[in-house]
């Protein structure tokens, strides 16, 4: 993700979604100079302000690192007559509380206008205590102006995983694993207890697709085929995977368009390959495919016109970013053509949902064939049980890993690449540790801060 700055007024928009970025304010904190040290200690303990301390050198001292931070912040303060002030960012909802805490010291928290080009830091509501949040944060920090796609990303991931891991038996095992994590039955896995709901939902989705495929530990006949057998009808499964990919891409284009409007306005979104222009090209290729397949001349013509208009917008957008000139024209032309080929490859890339679903079914089919061939007489019974159990264990572990990686790959490369074009900046509150150590005297904090 390459950084892109939001519009200057992005910090003063309407309140965000409860699960999205918290509204941020740029503030000035002003106190009487004589109360500077106590005010800094109050700010440090609150831990709700990201102070801008650039240019302030760290005082060389053998004291605590937290006290060094107090010295650095004191040196970074702007002094005017009897007042000292600092500038920083803080969540809007915390502003009144900090102002109340500083009031006894004669301090004030004053909201400021966001300067042009400044990007507010991002702090998500609810923190990072869920797996859906981790899916997005592993890719990058959500820009402050953007929608937070965490919940939609989790739903898309679970859906893709379930299609590749479709089996009622294996899905039921995942559900049990999720419930075991929730109950903390296995102490050594307590650190990933928060993933229980994600794992459980992935297992349930795999069970649904397993019922559609008629698979329960393979083609055992324990459940009927409700839709299709991957081994018997791979082509319909392939087409269904591509159709699902098209739906997910449509959602990513819609989210990306909203984000481009938030980041740079309608003009920026109009010419962006992940905004209106890119969405138009995506719709145009869909209309072309539909028109050619159904032999509908009007639909094909509409697709061609929309594709041409979208390519012109993309060309203008790339040309303006490149700065003009012969090289920029060449670059715009290449990237416009590349947009078509890349979009086609992105759609086809979702065929892996069918390919790995078919692989899962094929492995379980081989295991079931080996089990039934051994099941007959004599020592064949224990051998059949061994093949069935060991084969399912290996397939479960291998396919769960592969499906998990492939779903993540599709999420990041095909979907998130359209949702985001820039990376945000995580909120980093100024919160030095002021706890004294045995080596420090009770008055160390006040003495060093002074």
What can you tell me about this protein's structure?
The chain is of the alpha+beta class. It folds into 2 domains: 8-123 and 435-449, 2-Layer Sandwich (Alpha-Beta Plaits), CATH 3.30.70; 131-419, no CATH class. The chain has helices at residues 36-46, 65-76, 95-102, 131-139, 150-164, 168-183, 196-213, 234-271, 276-294, 297-322, 326-349, 352-374, 380-419, 444-449; strands at residues 24-32, 50-51, 78-80, 83-91, 108-112. Strands 1, 2, 3, 4 and 5 form a 5-stranded antiparallel β-sheet that branches. A hairpin with a 2-residue loop joins strand 3 and strand 4. The radius of gyration is 29 Å and the shape is flat. 39% of the residues are buried.
């Amino acid at each position: 993700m390459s950084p892109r700055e939001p519009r200057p007024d992005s910090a003063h928009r309407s309140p965000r979604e409860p699960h999205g970025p918290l509204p941020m304010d740029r503030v000035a904190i002003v106190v009487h100079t004589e109360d500077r040290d106590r005010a800094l200690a109050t700010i440090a303990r609150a831990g709700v302000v990201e102070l801008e301390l650039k240019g302030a050198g760290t005082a060389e001292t053998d004291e605590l690192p937290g006290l060094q931070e107090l010295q650095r912040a004191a040196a970074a303060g702007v002094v005017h007559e009897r007042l000292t002030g600092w500038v920083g960012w803080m969540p809007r909802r915390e502003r009144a509380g900090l102002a109340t805490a500083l009031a006894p010291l004669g301090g004030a928290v004053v909201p400021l206008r966001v300067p042009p080009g400044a990007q507010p830091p991002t702090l998500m509501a609810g923190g990072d205590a869920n797996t859906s949040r981790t899916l997005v944060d592993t890719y990058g920090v959500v820009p402050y102006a953007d929608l937070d796609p965490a919940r939609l990303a989790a739903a898309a991931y679970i859906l893709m995983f379930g299609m590749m891991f479709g089996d009622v038996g294996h899905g039921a095992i995942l559900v049990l694993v999720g419930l075991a994590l929730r109950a903390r039955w296995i102490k050594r896995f307590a650190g990933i207890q928060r993933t229980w709901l994600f794992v459980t939902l992935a297992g349930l989705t795999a069970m649904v697709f397993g019922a559609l495929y008629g698979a329960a530990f393979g083609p055992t006949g324990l459940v009927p085929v409700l839709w299709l057998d991957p081994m018997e009808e791979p082509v319909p499964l392939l087409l269904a995977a591509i159709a699902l990919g098209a739906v997910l891409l449509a959602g990513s284009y819609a989210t990306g368009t909203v984000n481009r409007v938030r980041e740079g306005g309608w003009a920026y979104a109009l010419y962006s390959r992940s905004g209106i222009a890119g969405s138009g090209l995506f719709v145009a290729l869909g209309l072309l495919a539909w028109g050619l397949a159904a032999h509908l001349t009007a639909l094909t013509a509409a697709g061609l016109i929309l594709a041409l208009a979208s390519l012109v917008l993309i060309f203008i957008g790339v040309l303006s970013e490149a700065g003009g000139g012969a090289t920029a024209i060449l670059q715009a032309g290449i990237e416009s053509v590349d947009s078509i080929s890349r979009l086609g490859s992105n759609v086809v890339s979702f065929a892996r949902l069918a390919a790995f679903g078919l692989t899962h079914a094929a492995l379980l089919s081989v295991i079931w064939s080996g089990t039934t061939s051994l099941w007959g007489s004599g020592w064949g019974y224990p051998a059949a049980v061994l093949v069935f159990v060991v084969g399912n264990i290996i397939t479960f572990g291998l396919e769960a890993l592969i499906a998990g990686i492939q779903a993540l790959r599709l999420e990041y490369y095909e979907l998130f690449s359209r949702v985001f074009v820039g990376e945000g900046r995580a909120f980093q509150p100024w919160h030095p540790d002021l706890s004294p150590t045995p080596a420090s005297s009770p008055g160390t904090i006040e003495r060093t801060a002074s």
